[in-house]
Amino acid sequence: MTLVVQKFGGTSVANIDRIRHVAQRVAKTYDQGNDVVVILSAMAGVTDGLIELAQKAAEEPDKRELDVLLATGEQTTAALLAMMLQSMGYKAQSMLGHQAQVVTDCDYGNARILEIGAHRLLQLIEKHTIVVVAGFQGYDIKGNITTLGRGGSDTSAVAIAAATNADVCEIYTDVDGIYTADPNVCPKARKLKTITYDEMLNMASLGAKVLQIRSVGFAKKYDIPVHVRSSFNEEEGTMVVNEDSGMEQLVVSGVTHDKKQARVTITKVPDQPGVAAKVFSPISEAGIVVDMIIQNTRQGGKTDMTFTVPKLDFKRTMEISQKVAAQIGAEEVLGDTNIGMVSVIGVGMKNHAGVAAVMFNTLARDNINIIMIGTSEIRISCVIEEKYTELAVRVLHTAFGLDAEE
Amino acid sequence: MTLVVQKFGGTSVANIDRIRHVAQRVAKTYDQGNDVVVILSAMAGVTDGLIELAQKAAEEPDKRELDVLLATGEQTTAALLAMMLQSMGYKAQSMLGHQAQVVTDCDYGNARILEIGAHRLLQLIEKHTIVVVAGFQGYDIKGNITTLGRGGSDTSAVAIAAATNADVCEIYTDVDGIYTADPNVCPKARKLKTITYDEMLNMASLGAKVLQIRSVGFAKKYDIPVHVRSSFNEEEGTMVVNEDSGMEQLVVSGVTHDKKQARVTITKVPDQPGVAAKVFSPISEAGIVVDMIIQNTRQGGKTDMTFTVPKLDFKRTMEISQKVAAQIGAEEVLGDTNIGMVSVIGVGMKNHAGVAAVMFNTLARDNINIIMIGTSEIRISCVIEEKYTELAVRVLHTAFGLDAEE
Q: What share of chain B is helix, strand, coil (3-state, %, to 5)?
């Protein structure tokens, strides 16, 4: 028999009617002759509501206790779906994180799954019981409840799919797959049939927030095919798979953009060993996530160092950077919140030298000036003036042959 | 050091402000040099809300899954109180039923505690950590979550007090102790300083719903002093203790009443072995709780059988009884919803023959006709016309010398 793991997010279980819809979907999959394990998030809004409640109880709620509180959200939906499936005549049973033996480290609020003791899950699956697992939660070696961070149910789903050797992990969400670009920005964007784990990893971190990035790493490690699809219709979504799984042979699979970054430049930094650490350690200690970092060697043992941070953290970053600049004897700190980032992503570009050239030429043709350039093995990102972001997405989408046919 | 177990009910943790009040109370007890274990109920109304939600999900929600759902209520309050105590600078930690190792049978919705593995509780107590245990919940031997039924947190508290060898179990509630009668009915009722477990057992089952009856049985078995007191003031409440613990020497400790019963009489039942089973088995199978049963032998091998059931179940009971009457060849079934029950309770009456006489004379003096009489070792109950119930409570309260001094 085929084993299908199905994960439904918060909007898919937002109320009793939506949960009933999920129950019907699960039942249908089961009736088609599959074993099914379901992973659920909390009802949309519930986790935020619980965080608010905690903040009323304590200014900085203890992290262990916050996880105990937050875990109730998924416990609720799991119990409701299980009783609903039973009332429809199906064998079903809920399992909480500790019952499904999802063992994590003890980093409350952002725990990582260490292993899953699939023994009890497999016992139920063998009896063809539909197992409904509360996502987002696990327990540490001492029996404390932990949660996996925002989007953690995706990781729960992929990890449980890996542990039970499932044939596919379906992620039901409110979008119907992965697109070549944001359809709101690029009307010609089209849904991809397949995408590689690596491309997805680059997509996710760039703002196409369909899957928790950690879950994609997990899926890649255990080679679990992940099917991203809509809980609102029956259409096929996008399969996230290994590179050699009969992919569409595209050089570039998608164009993403991000307007939430700001740029900081520290000029005339003495070019000495250890100076980068001196710049970035205090920023990282302040909990600010630096995305792109560019450094050009200049003459006279001085260099300019440029990096991007979330716009929300811009002011704090400027303050920290000014202190650091003074300490290390740099010249000055410049900042710019008026930027956008566009990226082209594709495993195909590894063997294709011309991608960067096509990208730069395309932007130049529309007089879009490139402020920064960053690359990874399968991604090229350009920082440009914010106002050109949408235009850049559209012209790149066309240039790389991604436009949907009319 | 003294170990105090404190249990707070739903009205005492109804919202963040009330929980803050509980935190202050717990902190005060701790600051006085005690170790403290706190047992919490869910916020008032939350359990009922969850049951409603479950009934929207399934007409007859599966009992296992319902317990998973209901357990979130106490999980929430336990986490909130623990984080609040921490933010006030106290060492505190929440424990769920399975973490506190409250092992029960697997009678979902009404599970009984089999044992408590106090090892982990005691470890925390030794470190002078305030432990906040989610009441009402446990787990069975297979790791399924169970709940203990209405008022189950009382039993959680007493059982944990027994397992940790606590010096006292304080039950904080919205009344300030046990009264000699319902003060709403009998203005001269006064608060008892002490009451025995046995008296409390008879009180609880007769409608003085301050403590879950099962918790009193537990307290008696392990000889745990239970202090019933108000969470709204600092006054001493009522101690529930063993008979030999220096009691007030009263013959009668209290007068209780119950207007929620109805009476059913089956006339001319053939007086044969097994006939009572034939009458009561179908009623019990329908989930109807029979309280008092009276049977007088009559001439000619026929007897009348009278019993009381909750008014809510009266109609169903009549229907079942009529079927049964036909089957066993009884004459007819009579019913009466217009009854009240008054009881006098006291361990003192065991050695005091005159109590029944005083009771019957007192009622007769006010022309209150007695319809049924039932007795236990420490209780005498009379069924009377409903309209006389309050009057009966007051005159009995005076007759047994219970009236508060002016």
A: 40, 25, 35
